[in-house]
Amino acid sequence: MNKNNVRVLSLLFVIFIALAATPQMTSYPTGLGVNGNPGCTCHSGGAGTTTVTVEGMPDSFSAGESYELKVTVSNPDIPGAEISTNTGGFRIFASAGTFSAGENFTDLVQELEGGLTHTELGNDVRAWNVTWTAPDSEGQIVEFTAHGNTVNGNAVIPTDGKGNTGDAWSSFTASVPGAAALGGGGAFIEQAEPFEVAIAAITFGIALFSLMLVYVFYRNNPDGFNLNGLTVWLKKWMTTTDHKEVGTLYFVFSFLFLLIGGTFAMLFRIQLAVADNDFLTQDQYNTFFTLHGTTMIFLAAMPMIAAFANWIVPLQIGAKDLAFPRVNAMGFWMLAFSSVLLYGGVLAGEGADITWTMYAPFSSSNGIKGASAGTTLFVAGIVMLGISSTLSGVNFIATIMTMRAPGVSWMKMPLFSWSIFVANAMLYLSLPALIIGTVYLFLDRTIGTHFYDAAVGGDPILWAHLFWYFGHPEVYVVIVPAFGVVSEVLATSAKRSIFGYRSMVYAMAGIGVLGFIVWGHHMLTSGMDPTLRLVMMLTTMLVAIPTGVKIFNWLATLWGGSLVFKTHTLWALGFLVTFTMGGISGMFFPVAGLDVHFHDTYFVVAHFHYVFVGGTIFGMFSAIYYWYPKATGRKLDEKLGLLHFIITFIAMNGTFWPMHQLGIEGMPRRYHTYSVDSWTELNTFITISALIMGAAQLILTWNLIRSYKHGEEVGNDPWGGWSLEWTTPSPPPTPSFHEIPTQGDANVHELEESAGGLFSRMWKGAESK
Amino acid sequence: MGPAEYTIFRDLMDTWNFWSLVVGIFTFLVMFYLIIKFREVSPDDKTPENLTPGVFPKERDNITLELTWFIVPTILVLYLTFIAWQSMISVWVDPYSEENADEAFDITIEAYQWGWNFYYHDEILIVNETGNISTFTTPMGTEITDGAMGIDGNLYLPCNQVIKAKIVTLNDGGELPVLHAPFIPEWGIKEDAVPGIDTYMAFTPKESGTYELFCAEYCGQQHSKMLAKVHVVGACGSGE
Predict the structure, then answer these.
(1) Residues 467-506 of chain A whose Cβ lies under 8 A from any Cβ of chain B
(2) pLDDT of residue A155
(3) Average pLDDT over residues A294-310
(4) What are the residue ranges of helices labelled H in A243-373?
């Protein structure tokens, strides 16, 4: 890529950011763009000299209590008393609680969209009494907004058509915390604001992370420990294009976000521990589970996979680097900056609350009842993620198709590289749907298009189709690499070759193809055509077949082997148990009579955590223990690893198994509170298990840090694996191979295939070029 | 809690639990047998492949075995698909057939941010404790507001009658009407409320009582507060 292209791309990037930061404008079906709230702010003149005051605001509110407020609009330049009628107007609303007219003011004040405004009669005065009744939960902060305008009675309509010349408007805002949100109020236990806990945790994490960076720098080179040396060192990491170093960046990034995503999960599990809890406010809960889902999939699981793909795939196929090293680095930095966009809203207290599925039309709505303001940034972040994944997807496809060393033909390629190829092909083919969908969403939110607004011909179900056309391949994108890892680990641990290599490849490719025609099973209750539901039901059922083939092939791999129980083996065996359970529970969803009950209940949550945590995360943990020696030259501590495995495995089942029962009993997901007391017991158990599982990850964190300097040193091939990465030193040099290696073959070939055309050369790999 | 014994959900759940157990137990037994039987006894154990770095190991496969675990799951999946297909007809096709059209008790469920309006288009037959039968006529297309029945924003349904609910959305002050989904665990049924189109769901209460109605599709801040009760008030047990 030449400098010009870089310039053009950075310019586009800047424009993109600028777009994300443009002022919010909502648009009405009439096509009129209106800033803020119609009625008061339509009187032009900006804030002018008008002031809005609300008297009687409490310092904090008690649940259910009523407060008398007085809204006054004044303007010294426009004397209201001298104009007989239509001197001013107001509008007041709050994020919680209800409004009603104050005593003797029922004729002057009326309800509007959850708040109050004046009546026609009420136009004649400049002060109104209103009553605000506090919500039932004291554990929140209520935001008040009052708009007011003063009217001079001048009938000259200005050119912009807003009110009359000389009118002016202004706003008043206030935040009133509930007694419990203040702490120590009434019957509530004093508690830290969980929102602050989350922000503090993120800040603390970043500070710790920076300290760690400095420490690592110091340990690398104690003599050159000065600021200049540090900037040089940081610059090296920020500009690196080496596949191993970018892989390390991906790994550190994903691990950080794994911990942050886990922290969110623990916070909202505490909220769900007992019925009618108020540990989190509804907004915080909604934001936290949105970020938990998005973080875990896009910022933890996928970068973790990208980390191993970066590190291992070129080594396994005998390539010096990836096909496009700079594109690779760009993909990573796009990801890093998109995480800033995703989290931007949280730090401002307005985190996105649209769930990781971002269902329109809720996600495209603004306003009091719509999605929070941070959603726009969030959606921009998702678009950037999509770009990042496209870049890395095309890179891996190109690398694996063209850069295999002699001997590494398609059917002699290690299964992990195969899995990365299948996953990235799926990703590359499904991402356009997501990017188109999110760009539509972004336009709906910013410049007032109506792609998802049914009132003017948009289609709310369009979003679900676009999202799940991407979303279902996406869940295979994160599970297929785990298949690859488990194939490698089980074969190496049993000291045998994988059973049925070819059927493994076909099964993986089969899952890859089937993955594109099953998305509708997420939408069986969405009002989709019943015929389409039937088709999706059939195809979904079929996915079980290649998955079953893989599981039985793994079992057969153990046959006649000599299985060692290293930590990575334990994770792979744990994967077999939990993934099989998750796979079986997946068979419940394509059944109409079951899905109409299970859809959006905790049964779904149980299922996908069994395949995400028990599948992807267990597979990635196995990969960490398996390839850590290759990356650092030292083993992770096996005793700590065993402890980590046992605690995580038990706590994981303790967390997600009871959710099946909750789902059968009908507990809906994404619920901030529940009032059914019989659900409390299981939920408390789940919360305790989740906290234990979260704490267990600190063992891994400690192990990763400690073993970097103190682990047992290893040679080229500590575990007895066969693929090409085990022929290089640990850690491998840069470039990874000085000479392109040749992969041997222990099989006797009866027929030598003759060198043919392009297709045959592609099929057989670089050897015949 | 959970769906009632007489729902199609329970039948299917029994079948699926049975086959899940069969598949799960079989897989795990085989797995634990293999793990124990073929564990490493001494570090010098040799296996036929003798894995060497940089050499693609000797392939092993067995076409009979692989075909077995391709064909057996396929048969099981096809069998389960056949049952699933039947359930689809009874959930999404039969209740809307012509012969059921007259007998059905029609309601309209209107979802808004964040609550429900219930509209009735038929009358409910009520049997009180002393055996007296009274008829409560619900004016077509309007909300029941009769305090005598304790109408309080909750849903009242007759017993032993197919309920056919039309589901619509209402824009109540938000910028846009958004997705919701009425979900009644007692009958294991839900369907999204989608702005711009009418959706339907059907079910048959067979026991009187009070049940929960949730919103199952995330709809914003007060999603978890979008609740209602469902009271089954008609004659039960004696059939129609």
Answers:
(1) 491-492, 494-497, 499-503
(2) 57
(3) 95
(4) 243-272, 282-294, 302-317, 325-347
pLDDT tens, residue by residue, B133-142 = 555 544 444 4
Mean pLDDT estimate for chain B: 81
Is A161 exposed, middle or buried, given 0-12, 13-18 or 19+ CB atoms closer than 10 A?
exposed
Bridge-partner residues for B229, per DSSP?
B212
Cβ within 8 Å of residue B102, ≥6 positions away: none
Question: Higher pLDDT residue, A82 or A122?
Answer: A122
Q: Which residue has better confidence, A675 or A113?
A: A675
Give catalytic status of residue A521 as yes or no: yes
- What does pTM read for this prediction? 0.79
Q: Between A356 and A117, where is the model more confident?
A: A356
Is A710 one of the annotated active-site residues of the chain? Answer: no
Distant-in-sequence, close-in-space partners of A529: CB < 8 Å, separation ≥ 6: none
What phi and psi values does residue A624 have, to the nearest 5 degrees? -60, -50
**The pairing of beta strand A141-150 with beta strand A26-27:** unpaired
Query: Given a cut of 60, is residue B131 above it in pLDDT?
Result: no
Q: Which of residues 167-186 of B touch A (CB under 8 A)?
A: 171, 173-179, 181, 183, 185-186
Query: Chain A: residue nearest B51 by CA?
Result: A722
**Of the candidates A555, A592, A724, which has its C-beta nearest B87's C-beta?**
A592
Catalytic residue, candidates A669, A671, A673, A761: A669
Compute CA distances A262 → A202, A294, A620, A640, A702, whole Å.
Answer: 12, 12, 16, 20, 16
Q: Which of B24, B39, B49 sits opposite A580 (nearest CB)?
A: B24
The string of pLDDT tens digits covering residues A518-528 is 998 999 888 78
Of A551, A563, A724, the CB nearest to B27: A551
Quickly state the pLDDT bin for A21 (edges 50, 70, 90): low
In terms of C-beta density within 10 A (0-12 exposed, 13-18 middle, 19 or more buried), how is residue A47 classed?
Answer: exposed
Report yes or no: B196 at the A interface, CB cutoff 8 Å.
yes
- Between CA A13 and CA A17, with CA A16 as vertex, the angle to 5 degrees is 90
Distance CA A667, CA A525 (A): 17
